Amino acid sequence: MKKVFALALALVLALACFAPAMAEENDLLARIKQRGSVIVAMEGTWSPWTYVEEIDGEEVLLGFDVDVSRAIAKKLGVEASFELCQWDSIFGGLDAKRYDFVANGVDWTEERAAKYAFSIPYCYTHTVLIVRSDNEDIKSFEDLKGKRTANTLSSTYAQLTESYGATTDGVDDLDATIELVMLGRVDATANSEDAFYDYLRVHPDAPIKIVDRTEEANLVCIEMRKDADSASLVEAVSKAIEELRAEGVLAELSIKNFGGDITAVPAE
After folding, report:
1. Hey, what CATH topology would domain 127-216 get?
2. Alpha helix locations (H) across the chain?
3. Among 124, 166, 215, 255, which is most buried by a count of CB atoms within 10 Å?
4. Rounded to whole angstroms, how far apart are CA atoms 164 and 26?
5. What is the DSSP letter of 153?
């Protein structure tokens, strides 16, 4: 009897130790905390969201999404580890579980939400239509039918211009996109209003202009996998964003990177 009791007790203790390990194995947030870092995917080619700059002979990753990711990681009790990749491979990398979340000015869309989980928005942006300064043919998105635009393929900007009848030339970054517009190789491009003004800040003589702007703000969110394993991370990231907004940290980081606050929730 004593042997049976001892065996039963040993089994209970073993299960008690095994249960947390099983829970951790199926809980991404728990693994992130055990690892001590959250792996964040971004392009690193889209100033002021995420870009690389040489400082004192070293390449340094900078930008709003870099700052926001670090602030979220701190709320989770870990460090942020960054992986730079091209836009077209970001979602595949997320699917393959190479990254924990994506922070790259990602807009919420119904199509993306059908496949991926999103945090609450951490900022709100408008999309603008950009043409050469001497272009008088395009005055609004409605004028894009039959025109050529340049954008990252599969981006919301490309989807928007194509919805108005334009065809898209695939380009990897904003600088290359604007160059195609200025050279007249494409008719227009769509991009974030904030990225446009940041480009003009660096290139004040660039012969480009805004001719149209979306009325509704885009909801910019952190993107994660849509599975039971990621559920706790999605909740924790949204909670972190809520706290960072309430503490004024999001507004502070926005002003630092954009010169204004794009994190305030729009009025109804």
Report:
1. D-Maltodextrin-Binding Protein; domain 2 (3.40.190)
2. 2-25, 28-35, 64-76, 87-95, 110-113, 156-163, 174-183, 193-202, 231-246, 249-258
3. 166
4. 44
5. T
- For 8, other C-beta atoms within 10 Å of its C-beta total 10
Residue 117 contacts residue 226 (beta carbons within 8 Å)? yes
Averaged confidence pLDDT in the chain? 90
Quick: pLDDT tens for 233-261.
Answer: 999 999 999 999 999 999 999 999 988 89
Give tens-digit pLDDT for 113-143.
999 999 999 999 999 999 999 999 999 999 9
- CATH of segment(s) 10-122+221-258: 3.40.190.10
| CA 249, chain centre distance (Å) | 18
Domains 10-122+221-258 and 127-216 share a fold: yes
Are 155 and 111 spatial neighbours (Cβ–Cβ below 8 Å)? no
Decide: 262 and 124 in contact? Cβ < 8 Å. yes
- The string of DSSP codes covering 59-121 is EEEESHHHHHHHHHHHHHTSEEEEEE--HHHHHHHHHTTS-SEE-SSPBP-HHHHTTEEE---
